[in-house]
């Protein structure tokens, strides 16, 4: 009888310990609560703005009914800004690819103090407010009227702002020791610099190039502060038009403009998350190590 009672008490204690969550479970629940609260704090205003662009009357809410009228009006009035933003983003991407990829490769390979100073100067436009960078461009190049009034002036500003993102993403990949080993092996076989750069550097730097390209496109389409200072009535991009609609038109039209902005930028953000998070190649390297370990475990008896 005593033995049965002795064995039953620990089982009851174990059941009580299972029912009571430990400190780690409370910590995890707190983390989930904070994360979900932050998501709701960020997502709810966006959802309400989109809803305002699809309702007949924002102040009456959903009861007024849904309509695509505001989207049609925005497209009729501002489709030129949409295409101009795409043109500016494409031109910015082309220039940053042409200049940023070689610059990132050189900075990753060079170990001199001069290269570090150049890298700091490249990152300087990120540290400065966009208005300050735009003012500097206006002071230096504002006297050239044809250049000042053209779209090229905005493209230059966007290149100055986005080039560091391309250089940093490419440099992170080119700094890999495996890439250096491949280049040295190709050089020992007689490959020239251009052959090594085209056949070895560019294919291996593809994750960084893709991540940098997506960042450049997203930042160029959404840049407002710098563009607001550099634009003219004939060179109004998407973010500047968005500010105008919120300032001078109905809130429904401004919200519909926001929907149009999301339609353009969200695919780029999703692509950046899907492709650009592995700019250094660490995830692919981890997958390769995992595959190698699995293959070794299968081959070993």
Walk me through this protein's architecture.
This protein has 301 residues and is mainly α. It has helices spanning 2-19, 23-54, 69-109, 113-127, 130-141, 145-148, 151-174, 177-188, 193-204, 206-222, 225-230, 238-248, 251-275, 282-299. The chain has 2 domains: 22-67, no CATH class; 71-285, MetI-like fold. It is 82% helix and 0% strand. Helix 8 packs antiparallel against helix 9. The protein starts with a helix and ends with a helix. The model is unreliable at 276-282 (pLDDT under 50).
CATH-derived architecture of the largest domain: Orthogonal Bundle
* Gyration radius, rounded: 27 Å
| Structural domain count | 2
Quote the average pLDDT: 79
Instruction: Give the CA-CA distance, first to last residue.
Output: 52 Å
From the spread of the alpha carbons, the general shape counts as globular
Major pleated sheet: none
Order of helices and strands: HHHHHHHHHHHHHH
| Beta strand % | under 5%
**What is the CATH topology of the largest domain?**
MetI-like fold
Write the CATH homologous superfamily of the largest domain. MetI-like
Number of strands: 0
Content-based structural category: mainly alpha
Number of discrete helical segments? 14
> What fraction, in percent, of the residue positions are helical?
over 70%
Given as residue ranges, the uncertain stretches (5+ residues, pLDDT < 50) are: 276-282
Any idea of the CATH class of the largest domain?
A: Mainly Alpha
InterPro entries: MetI-like, MetI-like_sf
Organism: Paraburkholderia phenoliruptrix
Family: Belongs to the binding-protein-dependent transport system permease family.
Subcellular location: Cell inner membrane; Cell membrane
């Amino acid at each position: 009888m005593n033995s049965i009672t002795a064995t039953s008490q620990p089982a009851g204690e174990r059941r009580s310990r299972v029912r009571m969550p430990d400190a780690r479970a409370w910590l995890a629940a707190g983390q989930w609560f904070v994360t979900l609260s932050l998501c709701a704090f960020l997502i709810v205003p966006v959802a309400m703005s989109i809803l305002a662009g699809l309702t007949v009357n924002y102040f009456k809410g959903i009861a007024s009914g849904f309509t695509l009228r505001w989207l049609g009006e925005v497209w009729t009035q501002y489709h030129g800004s949409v295409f101009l933003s795409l043109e500016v983003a494409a031109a910015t991407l082309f220039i940053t690819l042409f200049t940023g990829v070689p610059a990132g490769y050189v900075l990753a390979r060079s170990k001199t103090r001069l290269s570090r100073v150049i890298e700091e100067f490249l990152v300087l436009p990120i540290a400065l407010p966009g208005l300050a960078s735009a003012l500097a461009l206006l002071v230096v190049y504002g006297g050239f009227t044809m250049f000042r009034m053209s779209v090229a002036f905005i493209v230059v500003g966007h290149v100055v702002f986005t080039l560091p993102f391309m250089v940093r993403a490419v440099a992170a990949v080119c700094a890999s020791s495996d890439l250096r080993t491949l280049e040295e092996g190709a050089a020992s076989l007689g490959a020239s610099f251009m052959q090594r750069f085209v056949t070895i550097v560019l294919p291996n730097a593809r994750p960084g190039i893709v991540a940098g390209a997506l960042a450049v496109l997203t930042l160029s389409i959404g840049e407002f502060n710098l563009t607001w200072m550099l634009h003219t009535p004939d060179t109004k991009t998407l973010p500047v038009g968005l500010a105008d609609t919120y300032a001078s038109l109905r809130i429904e039209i401004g919200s519909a403009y926001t929907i149009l902005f999301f339609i353009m930028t969200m695919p780029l953000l999703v692509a950046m998350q899907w492709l650009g998070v592995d700019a250094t190649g660490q995830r692919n390297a981890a997958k390769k190590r995992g595959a190698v370990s699995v293959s070794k475990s299968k081959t070993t008896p």
